[in-house]
Amino acid sequence: MVQLPDSRNRATQFRTTNVVPFNGHPNSAMTPTPGSANNSAIQLDRVSRHYTLGTSSIRAVDDVSLTIRPGEFVALLGSSGSGKSTLLNLMAGLDRPTSGAIHADGRNLAELSSLELARYRRNTVGMVFQSFNLLPRMTLAENVELPLRLAEVDHAEREARVAEALARVKLDKRTAHRPSELSGGEQQRTAIARALVNRPKILFADEPTGNLDSATGESILNLLSEIQSSLGMTIVMVTHERPLAEKFASRLVMMGDGKLLSDGANNGAVR
Amino acid sequence: MKLRDMTELAVRNLREALFRNSLTTLGVAVGVASLVAMLSLGVGLQQLASSRLTKSGLFDSVFVTPKLNVRGGPPSMATQQGDTRLLDEDARQEIAKLPNVIEVFPQVRFFSEVRFNDKPFATMVAGMPQSAKGNGAFDGMKGNFFTGESADEAILQVEFAKELSKDTASLVGKTLSIRYAERQALDDNSGGFSIVPKEKQLQIIGVVETEPAAGFGGYGNGRLLIPLSTALSLRATQVNDLRDAVRGGPAKPTFASLTVRAKSPSNVDAIEEAVKKMGFGAFSLLDASKSLRIFFSVFDLLLGIFGSLALAVATLGIVNTLVMAILERRREIGVLKALGAADHDVKRLFFVEAGVMGLLGGFGGVFFGWLIGRALTLATNIYLKRQDLPSVEISSVPWWLVLGAISFAVLVSLIAGLYPASRAAKLNPVEALRYE
Prior knowledge:
- The structure holds two protein chains of two kinds.
- Chain A has nine helices and ten strands.
- By secondary structure, chain A is α/β, with parallel strands linked by helices.
- Chain A has a domain at 10-124 and 200-265: Rossmann fold.
- The radius of gyration of chain A is 18 Å and the shape is globular.
- By secondary structure, chain B is α+β, with helices and mostly antiparallel strands.
- Chain B has three domains: 3-54 and 292-434, no CATH class; 60-101 and 260-284, no CATH class; 108-254, no CATH class.
- In chain B, the strands form two sheets. Chain B has a six-stranded mixed β-barrel with strand order 3-4-9-6-8-7. In chain B, strands 2-10-1-11 form a four-stranded antiparallel β-sheet.
- In chain B, a hairpin with a 7-residue loop joins strand 7 and strand 8 (193-208).
- Classes of the chains: A alpha/beta, B alpha+beta.
């Protein structure tokens, strides 16, 4: 198992793998050869995201380069404010970088129009949030159907795909229930079904276990791991729960102060 | 997103904040109702005025008089036009041959003293052709129309009937006598005549509430109507008789005026022109009708503006409701965007919500507006009944008003939704998702 560093001594204790210098830049993890975008699910090239707050500038993500290969289960770790969620939002097409390029699905997200970004979010990626973000007035089935509505999938096909997605998360018996009638774990499973229903290539999960007890959290990660291995899906998960990340993720990326501190394979993950 | 899905989501969203959205929709309905009520009054009053005037038979008629001014006019006019044509039987027949003319009949109106129950009443007697029965003026009359062209019968206009008796219906079947001045030609062929007082008994066979012989050209309203042939046979002295006597010449009877009835009001202009070319004076009330239409158009416009004020206030309600909805549903907008909703999807969703409120408000408003119109008509008719006057229809909601009001409500609602919709569309998904 990969031994992760603590905040005081991370540089010496963290054992990195697959880290190849890129143009001499210390944060470059993968070799971005001209055709590398084709071999990656997502590739970040010197990505920064700065915010201006009054007169001061906050570097939420600072010059990060990272390549995630198809089928990887990547855990983005770091303390609060380290920039991991901002990085996830950038990769998910919810936000735009201040500088740098994000290559996904053969395109640079930084150069896409807002309509193209919406299409990317709709067709290429799925999102799971810490607070589930299910629409309370809709039933489970209706919540899961929402991305299909946005993608203008035919009515006839929707029912089958919703049933399939809910069956995958073992909630096919609760389709008519509303989120308020479910436990936290069930709500998160519904959110996963909603993220999967459009058959995305990459699943982004922002603290998916943050609002759950440890046992439920583990079951959710079990589910994600199962999906990743059965569908061969790329999963990028932000978490601050290191033990869970070590148990399930195939790769651990550590962030601090907006920078990539370390990036390494996790050979001890449950397969 | 497809329109069907969009509408489903919009209706679901509206149902979620049912009370607030119902109040907003009610606001739109009240605005539309005020607009519809105002315009229905305008339309109703216009129709009332038009139908009254149409029923009087004035709009499909051309009134022909001899050219009075030619003889007294400048010499140039007299030489150009030659002698004034006499409005006699030959002229009547010539006019009757014009295209689209149904009939030509003389205006017979004369002053008379009516005696009823030994009391004298002064009024104007008018001769009515038998064809007047069909022009609608006698619809709803008490009693019957003349049994024949030469019957010794009279129909009273209700205002005159009230002078004779408070219970106007009881007059039907009773007899009255008229005293009039009969013109008797002198034997010397001078064109002069003597005036002899005469009296005639007539049976009252009906009381009419409209004014089928409304006055024009200074002849006064005919309040006692008798069959035209009967009126002609009386040879009562008329206003043109003195002029004929002064003119001298053969004592050929002439008419003070002729009424030409056209097939429809659209033929009136052509007939009027043709009659003028024949050398007679011609006049129709179509010009007055055009002025009336202009007046009512302006009247409707003003009523519409006043009615729209309430709708303008309701528009602010829609803006407020949707802006509140954006605040409340910020997170939901973030979720929609995270799931792939484009800016235009979010914008359209809010547009559809505004449109649905406008549509429902439009339907409700048309119904309420119609109801207000009915209530005003009812109240007016109660008042008129107390005054012993016939009931009227003062409001009317034609189909164009229904469609127009609903479309206007939707349009105004969509305009009201412009700002909230674009504000919702511009929300940053990351910030929206962070919103608690």
